[in-house]
Design brief:
The complex is a heterodimer of chains A (228) and B (419).
Chain A (H helix, E strand, L loop, with lengths): L4 E12 L5 E12 L3 E6 L5 H8 L7 E6 L2 E2 L5 H11 E4 L11 H12 L4 H14 L15 H13 L5 E5 L7 H18 L2 E5 L3 H5 L3 E6 L2 E5 L1
Parallel strand pairs in A: 3-8, 3-9, 6-7, 7-8
Antiparallel strand pairs in A: 1-2, 1-4, 4-5, 9-10
Chain B lengths: L1 H15 L1 H38 L4 E4 L9 H4 L25 H10 L3 E16 L2 E10 L1 H8 L5 E4 L3 H4 L3 E5 H7 L6 E6 L4 E10 L4 H6 E5 H8 L8 E6 L5 H12 L2 E4 H4 L1 H39 L1 H9 L4 H35 L20 H28 L2 H7 L1
Parallel strand pairs in B: 3-8, 5-7
Antiparallel strand pairs in B: 1-9, 1-10, 2-3, 2-6, 2-9, 4-7, 5-8, 6-7
Helix pairs in contact in B: 1-14, 2-12, 2-14, 2-15, 12-15, 13-16, 14-15
The chains are: A alpha/beta (228), B alpha+beta (419).
């Protein structure tokens, strides 16, 4: 497989059985190349979030094929998938930002501690670098629950970056932020994509946001209706 | 590094809900404290009550019982060999209460490696003469040194010295009840008459209190020589040999063997005191049941608190899973929480249990029946502490296992999308 392909989905289908059988995803296939900034847009209920959770390996109840970094995700165990998420996928959510029991710095380095590629000291240095880049290095020693929404989201981005993932996935990362903070978050994503060649896959219902990304996938009723 | 990460997260989750965690740990502490103190106290009492009888009982007694001959003349008659014999009104013959050939038996016993010690004894039925009243009694002629070594005789001599029995001729240590009735004190002279009618004056050198009041009203102790003198017998006259074995559990078989070998009667401690063992084991059983109930109740407490914690920490679990922690990592985190509560709660419980035992051990407990006891008895056996420690870990592990498994199976997608 082309080493430039970060993520490849082929013929992904998923049914909800409750309350009655319903096809949420129908024959979804696409690829994400290295350094691409892709957004998935569509109306509420079109299956875009469902798709994202399948791509993120957290939802394993689907049919079709999924490769991340050239590896087949279908044949992996729960433990192996957790390791894939840890090493190759960075997450930014809409609501559930950080672990309130820990400081900002600890939140950022936690996935790194789990991965064990770098020593805690190196991880802290790296985390401080990311936080500085995102303009929030002064918050590092604060407890996570004391931060504002915009600040939390930036910390979450720093956390997503800590293990140099193949791809960063976001589920409505700006959905809960005011305009100013949305702008900041978008600019960070754009910068990551352009300057550092970071691949990004962001689900959003904000058409304005989607229009500014490199590639947009439009979904309707569980199908991809347009890629550009 | 990873080994430190899981406890690290567990610690953070615990300190975030410090009060709940402490309540759960306090539950374990309380139950372990009570478990240790209760078992120590119960078994202290058990040992005390058992010692009351068992310490002073020989493991095997050899004596000659009054009983009819097992072989009646008719069964020796060859003419009626094949017939069934009906014999009514069989009476015991004139048996001597003396042990035959006691000297040889003594030396045989001393050579036996299973035997820890032998104390010979002469029992004499007497009347204590108190003015015009004759009171029945028993004088046990004992070898003071052996009796002390094997049966802790001096522990029960509440006043006077046990060794005076050997040093002062014609001396007696009276049972407390008998002494009270005779108004006799140390130094007084009392009159006894043997059943054959020979009177003898004895000097009181001590008072004996066994803890069993009935016994103290009749029993007194003298040296073997003095007792033989009361009975008018020679100095090889012994009525009983009391044997202590190295291993008490072999007593029944040893007793049987000696009975056959020395052609006398024997009785083992298990047969003689069966009811005490039953009582002890039932008491232990009850205290174990109570202690284990306490632990199980605290286990439910931990289960509840962990369950609540997992509901509260659903977000945290989801984030951990999304950022690469597997189900087994999450399970481990909650098991570490449960086991930490069990370990530290249990440790505190062991310490408090020991302190509570010390307190009980110092509460005055004075009773006329137990002259050597001044405070409540406590058994500080390490066994109870080990059982308590193991049990606290096992119950907390089980209490933590099910909530932890639930946490590990939590689907992060449901939580993240749910809001």
């Amino acid at each position: 497989m082309d080493s430039n392909i970060v993520l490849k989905a082929q013929a992904i289908e998923k049914y909800f059985t409750d309350p009655e059988p319903f096809k949420v995803l129908d024959n979804v296939s696409f690829e994400i190349l290295k350094g691409e900034f892709t957004s998935i847009v569509g109306k509420s209920g079109c299956g875009k979030s469902t798709l994202l959770y399948i791509l993120s390996t957290m939802d394993t109840d689907y049919s079709g094929q999924l490769w991340i970094g050239g590896e087949d995700m279908k044949i992996k165990s729960e433990k192996e998938l957790a390791a894939v998420r840890n090493e190759h996928i960075g997450f930014v959510f809409q609501f559930h930002y950080l672990l309130n029991e820990f400081s900002v710095l600890k939140n950022v380095i936690l996935p790194g501690l789990k991965l064990q590629k770098l020593s805690p000291k190196d991880l802290e240095e790296k985390a401080m670098l990311h936080l500085k880049q995102l303009g929030i290095d002064s918050l590092a020693p604060k407890m996570a629950y004391k931060l504002s929404g915009g600040e939390k989201q930036r910390v979450a981005i720093a956390r997503a970056l800590i293990n140099d993932p193949l791809i960063i996935m976001g589920d409505e990362p700006t959905g809960n932020l005011d305009h100013k903070n949305s702008e900041i978050v978008f600019d960070i994503f754009e910068q990551l994509s352009k300057e550092y060649g970071q691949s990004l896959l962001i689900v959003t219902h904000d058409d304005e946001f989607a229009a500014r990304t490199g590639k947009t996938i439009i979904m309707e009723d569980g199908r991809i209706v347009q890629k550009n | 590094m990873k080994t430190g990460l899981i406890p690290d997260i567990a610690y953070a989750l615990m300190t975030a809900r410090l009060r709940q965690t402490l309540v759960a740990a306090a539950g374990v502490t309380f139950s372990i404290t009570m478990f240790v103190a209760l078992l120590g106290f119960m078994n202290g009492l058990n040992t005390l009550l058992d010692d009351l009888i068992l310490n002073r009982s020989p493991h095997v007694r050899l004596y000659n019982d009054i009983k009819p001959s097992p072989v009646q003349p008719i069964s020796m008659a060859t003419a009626y060999k094949d017939d069934y014999h009906f014999i009514s009104s069989v009476k015991p013959g004139a048996v001597r209460k003396e042990l035959y050939n006691s000297g040889a038996i003594l030396s045989a016993l001393k050579a036996d490696t299973r035997v820890a010690g032998v104390s010979p004894k002469v029992t004499a039925q007497v009347f204590y003469n108190i003015g015009p009243i004759d009171m029945t009694g028993v004088i046990n002629g004992i070898d003071v040194e052996n009796e002390q070594r094997l049966f802790f005789f001096a522990n029960y001599v509440t006043s006077g010295r046990a060794s005076d029995l050997e040093d002062v001729s014609n001396s007696v240590i009276l049972g407390k009840g008998a002494a009270d009735k005779m108004l006799a004190n140390i130094g007084d002279i009392i009159q006894v008459t043997s059943i054959t009618g020979d009177p003898l004056s004895l000097k009181v050198v001590g008072i004996f209190q066994s803890g069993i009041a009935e016994l103290d009203k009749v029993q007194s102790y003298a040296s073997i020589r003095t007792t033989q003198k009361i009975l008018g017998k020679t100095n090889n006259y012994l009525t009983e040999l009391q044997i202590k074995l190295h291993d008490m559990s072999t007593a029944p078989s040893v007793a049987k063997e000696y009975a056959d070998l020395f052609r006398c009667d024997s009785e083992d401690i298990q047969t003689a005191n069966a009811q005490f063992e039953t009582g002890s084991s039932v008491r232990s059983l009850i205290s174990y049941a109570v202690g284990i109930t306490l632990l199980i109740v605290s286990g439910f407490g931990i289960y509840n608190i962990l369950n609540m914690m997992i509901y509260e920490k659903m977000d945290t679990i989801a984030i951990l899973k999304a950022t690469g922690f597997s189900g087994s990592d999450v399970k481990l985190i909650f098991l570490v929480i449960a086991l930490s509560i069990g370990f530290f709660g249990g440790l505190a419980g062991l310490i408090f249990g020991y302190i509570l035992s010390l307190i009980i051990d110092n509460i005055p407990f004075v009773t006329a029946a137990l002259p050597t006891i001044h405070t409540y008895p406590i058994d500080y056996n390490l066994k109870y502490y080990i059982i308590a420690a193991i049990f606290s870990l096992v119950t907390t592990y089980l209490a933590g296992y099910f909530p932890a498994r639930k946490a590990s199976k939590t689907d992060p997608v449901n939580i993240i999308r749910g809001k």
